[in-house]
Amino acid sequence: MPMKWVLHWHPNTGTTVNSQILNEISLCVECINGVKEGRWKAVLTFYRPILRDQALAAEFPRDFLGLSLPEEPNKYYFILRGQRIVLEADSSIQVIMDKLQSYKSRVSLNFEGTQYRLGDFQVRVGKVVPSHSENMRGIVMEVEYLPISSTEKCRQIMAEFVDILQEALSKRSLPGQFMHIEPNFAEYGLLDHYTSQHTAIQYATVMAQLIATVQQVQPMRN
Amino acid sequence: MHRMAIDATPAEASREAPPKQVAMAMELLGQAARLIADIRLGADRFLEALFLSAEPHQSNKPLDLIRKEESAMKQHLEDLRNIGRQLEDSGVLNEALISRSNSWGLHMPLVCPDGAVVAYAWKRQLAGQAGASAVDRTRLALKSFLEQKRRFFPHLDIESVPKRHCVTQPSVVDDHEDSSYYKSLMDILIGLENESQDMKVLAYERLDWLKRSSSLPSSVNEDSIETSVGHTYPGANKLKLGPLGTVPADKIAVIELFIPSVLRAVISLHPAGSTSPDAVSFFSPDEGGSYLHARGVSVYHVFRCVTEYSNMALQYFLGIKMETALFFLLQWVKSYQTLFTKACSKCGRVLSVDRQSALILPPVLRPYRKMLTTGHISLILNAERRCAWIEDDLSEMPAEAWRRWQFLPIRWKSYLSILVE
Q1: Do β-strands B360-361 and B352-353 pair in parallel, antiparallel, or remain unpaired?
Q2: Cβ of B286 and A119 within 8 Å?
Q3: Which positions in chain B touch A153 (Cβ < 8 Å)?
Q4: Which residues span the membrane (chain B) (predicted)?
Q5: pLDDT recorded at residue B280
Q6: Of A90, B45, B106, B309, whose CB has the highest number of CB atoms within 10 Å?
């Protein structure tokens, strides 16, 4: 699978994200010869266990994430960041969880936006909104280099591509910038060869960053 | 028929335009020729009738023949006289029209003193013009060809070897690998595999390659991480597998160079078992399908660019010395191990916008000329990109030039067709 970086928008202190910033970013990508390809959507869900005895709640991990990705419609991914666990399951697991009444969805967030193609690169720009609200919580960008799948070999290429993008964005004087935090994939037991599990971990990391950012402005409501 | 010198130009001739005059004169001459033929035939019949009358037991038959023929001949001669008069009037039988200024450069057909009819002067003139234009066109074609040859194949002009590319980093020198040492195909392949840890060298018969390429996974999943030799894919037992030694050397027609996570290069040999490559193509290590062959094209821009450039390198190696072409080509392909990690020597970046195509590319150029000017093989560690070309480096043959070269034969066909006309 081609190597991908998931970046999140880090707004300057005191500012928030809005759709105008998103539009500017999209225009910027189009300016560097990005060709619009279509829409994309990923859904991240926070689960909490359904327990009869609430005292046991402490034994369960705090953040149990589930993620569905557009490139793998038949799969569903689970991430436990604290324990460095990532799991790929069939998409029917959601139905199973519902029937078993084992876990319940606490909060669900949609990552959705437009997909662009720039030569051998694929860029997705999207906003982060809770499922039942229009309140934009963040902006994410996925950058994918299609020809090769090695995490190591791609690193320089990705870094320079992001530099090119940042350079283009800086001309528009936007209040913030994209940041990339590379998770330690080896800790999760993953190999150099890139897979959707790597993507899932990146999304979990991005989510944590978004929460931290939002909490700076306002405490996040459960 | 005798000629009469007449200076006066006939009234009706001056009314017509010269081409019409010429056409009419040609027609009259044609009629005259037909009449002359009829007269000759009549004379033959006379002789026949006389011959017949010499034989015994003849009635009035020869006399009838003679009478009939006599009337016919009289008519023919009369017609000929008329035509003669008309030709005289139009100036064919004299030189009055030659010096006319409004003849449009065309000459009237002329009956020479010795009886020869110079009736085709104007046609010959046009033919002469056509001939002249063919000569001009050939000259232009030759000039254009020489110019393009000088541009695209400068190595064929010995004086134009460029001295611009210096190796800026110390290169890896392998003293014991002299190019003359590698004589046979197997020597080259085994030598190459031994000296590179990361690269896998595999050899196939031509049809076996087709099976192999079709079985390569087109989208990579976790199962295919160990694809390097391909032991795990189904059908392995049926194929004569790639590893050197399983295919007889004289049947090797396709060589696969696989650098894990970087590229897969496919080289075709012609004839099979020889050391002369005839095509090379680059693909992503994740690509698979029957379009993966030495003349195929990758779906990714970066590998497409490298393939275009590699064709030029191949022509260069073949042009210098055919026997060592494969050896140098393989060494040159090996230099692409750092395609995604080594920065461009001109701009210092791994990724930059290519000016010609507006694509964002890593350095796709690896110089190949220097490889042959040194006595031993030095791996060229310079990596370059097309951003350098437009400034000063025409000797590096932009890919667009290669594209134009591919179209050259079509234009040549049109040149040749003009010459053949």
Answers
A1: antiparallel
A2: no
A3: 261-262, 340-341
A4: none
A5: 92
A6: B309
Which residues of B fall below an 8 Å CB-CB distance to A? 219-222, 225, 260-262, 284-286, 300-303, 340-341, 343, 349-353, 358-362
Instruction: Choose among B219, B341, B351: nearest Cβ to A153.
Output: B341
Distance between CA atoms of residues B372 and B179, nearest Å: 10
Selecting from B261, B300, B303 the residue whose C-beta is nearest the C-beta of A149 gives B261
Per residue in B293-335, pLDDT (tens digit) is: 888 899 999 999 899 889 888 888 888 888 888 888 888 898 8
Label residue B93 by pLDDT band (50, 70, 90): low
**Neighbouring C-beta atoms of residue B101, cutoff 10 Å:** 5
Write out pLDDT tens, residues B331-372.
889 888 888 888 888 888 888 887 777 788 888 888 777 665
Strand ordering across the sheet containing B277-283:
B200-204, B254-259, B263-269, B277-283
> What is the helix, strand, coil percentage profile of chain A, to 5?
35, 35, 30
Domain count, chain A: 1
Give the domain range for residue A95: 3-221
Question: Distance of CA A62 to CAs A79, A129, A218, A219, B106, Å?
Answer: 11, 22, 20, 17, 104
Q: What is the rounded CA–CA span in Å between residue B29 and residue B101? A: 23
- Chain A residues lying within 8 Å of B300, measured CB to CB: 120, 146-147
List of chain B residues whose C-beta atoms are within 8 Å of the C-beta of residue A152? 261
Counting one residue from A and one from B, how many pairs have CB atoms under 8 Å apart? 69
Tell me if B340 and A146 make a contact (CB, 8 A cut-off): no
**From residue B402, how far is each of B149, B153, B267, B294, B295 by CA, in Å?**
12, 10, 19, 17, 15
Residues from chain B contacting residue A193 (CB–CB below 8 Å): 220, 222, 225, 261
The pLDDT assigned to B412 comes to: 54
Rounded Cα distance, A65 and B106, in Å: 96
Alpha helices (runs of H) in chain A, residue ranges in sequence order: 19-31, 93-100, 151-170, 196-217
Would you call B177 helix, strand, or coil by DSSP? coil
Angle separating helix axes B18-54 and B61-90, nearest 10 degrees: 160
Neighbouring CB atoms inside 10 A of B421's CB total 7
Whether residues B286 and A148 touch (CB distance < 8 A) is answered with yes
Q: Which of A119, A148, A195 sits opposite B285 (nearest CB)?
A: A148
| pLDDT for position A8 | 93
Token output for A72: 């793998």
User: Which CATH number is A52's domain given?
Assistant: 2.40.320
Give the model's pLDDT for residue B105.
Answer: 52
- Distance between CA A167 and CA A101 in Å, rounded? 49
The DSSP H or E segment spanning B207 is: helix B206-215
Helix (H, G, I), strand (E, B) or coil at A141: strand
Can you tell me the distance from the alpha carbon of B254 to that of B269, in angstroms, rounded to the nearest whole number?
A: 6
**Average of per-residue pLDDT across B47-61:** 79
Closest C-alpha to B38, from B101, B92, B83: B83
Interface test with B, best of A165, A193, A194, A196 (most B CBs within 10 A): A193
- Cα–Cα distance, A114 to A40 (Å, whole number): 6
pLDDT at residue A38 in the model: 92
Look at residues A63, A59, A10 and name the one whose alpha carbon lies nearest to residue A210.
A10
Return d(Cα B265, Cα B309) in angstroms, integer: 13
